Amino acid sequence: MTYLYLLVISFLTTLLITPLIIKMAIKLKVTDQPNNRKVHVRKTPSMGGLAMYIGFLISIYFSGIENDFLLPIIIGTLVIIITGMLDDYFELRPLLKLTGQIIAAAIVINNGVVVEFINIPFGSTLNLGWLSIPLTLLWILGITNAINLIDGLDGLAAGVTSIVLLTITIIAFSMFNYFVVFLAMVLLGANLGFLVYNFYPARIFMGDTGSLFLGFMLSVISLLGFKNVTLFSLIIPVLILGVPISDTFFAIVRRAVNKQPLSHPDKSHLHHCLMRIGYSHRQTVIIIYGISTLFGLFAILFSKTTLWGAVIIITLILVGLELLAEFVGLINKNYRPILNFFKRIK
Predict the structure, then answer these.
(1) Burial class (CB in 10 A: 0-12, 13-18, 19+), 91
(2) What total number of domains does the chain contain?
(3) Is residue 326 in a domain?
(4) Top-ranked range on mean pLDDT: pick from 91-105, 149-163, 303-317, 332-346
(5) pTM of this prediction?
(6) Residue 325 has pLDDT above 60, yes or no
(7) Which of 12, 135, 181, 234 is deepest in the core (most CB within 10 A)?
(8) How far is Cα of residue 337 from the mean position of the Cα atoms in its chain?
């Protein structure tokens, strides 16, 4: 009940603060302009992540919870928020934006948010040694930018992140990791409060202020929830974050093949592809919500299974994804009338 109370506080705070942030963004001319790379067609206020951050902080203040990781997380998120706000206002160069993310990551890593070893099945332990810090840094930067990359449609990043946070809450609660439950539920409340204004048609975008904040928090929460776990359990946070991770992976491959910088934007992300084959803005977002929910369900099953059960689940996921891709390709190619019929269903 305490966690639900804190969720409601962050939800209501963000709900009430967001209209003020909309007015502030318009006054400061912090708006996202339409262009040939973006989906939206009208100028929209940005920097909405600031409302989520305020809701997050207010809820933490009223919680009274004490934990050694809490202060470093607050300081790290402050660095991330400042970095995001500067980017939304001035459009920082990629190197400067990355520097802010590294500083924020270094703050939490220096205070113990590090994967130091992995328990290998059958009783062995793999000590990561000097690799623990760079691998942790890579995870934080990767997830932070993964959420940034999927923030391409109204309500997409906020909705997917909400599904991820709900999945983490369920698994962490079953593992009695109540600090992770606390962080996840507070962030979930702020997310849902913002989603009221961000779902299609959006009245405000979260901007880099929000996407970097959510990505950073997801990376840290997943580390706190699944650090020093078994080799196969390392797949759990990867499954939970399956949508942003897979989208980022293919973006990296795509840009490497085309010999483009990693920061080079394009219109080949999952949501762009779904819209290109004819799905509406709202339908595309709901489809990706569904995919993210499936990944979350797989992660919950995975967390409760044995070693060989994990192997079976991985195999089923891979086969299922391949069959889904083949089915969608078949429908799109040979059964266009059927596809169009379903697209007309609102």
Answers:
(1) exposed
(2) 1
(3) no
(4) 91-105
(5) 0.82
(6) no
(7) 181
(8) 35
Rg of the chain on CA atoms, in Å: 20
For 12, 20, 85, 133, the CA distances from 15, given in Å and listed in that order, are 5, 10, 20, 37
Please check whether residue 130 lies inside any domain of the structure.
Answer: yes
Q: Establish if 293 belongs to a structural domain.
A: no
Give pLDDT tens digits for 147-174. Answer: 888 877 888 889 999 999 999 899 888 8
Which two three-digit tokens encode residue 31? 């708006």
CA nearest neighbour of 60 among 110, 15, 2? 2
- Tokens encoding 225: 């929830």
Contact 296, 167 (CB under 8 A): yes
Q: For 127, phi and psi rounded to 5 degrees?
A: -80, 125
In the beta sheet, which residues pair with residue 125?
119
**Both structure tokens of 238:** 């990867």
| Structural domain boundaries enclosing 217 | 2-229
Is residue 283 one of the residues assigned to a domain?
Answer: no
| The pLDDT of residue 339 | 45
CA distance 58 to 143: 25
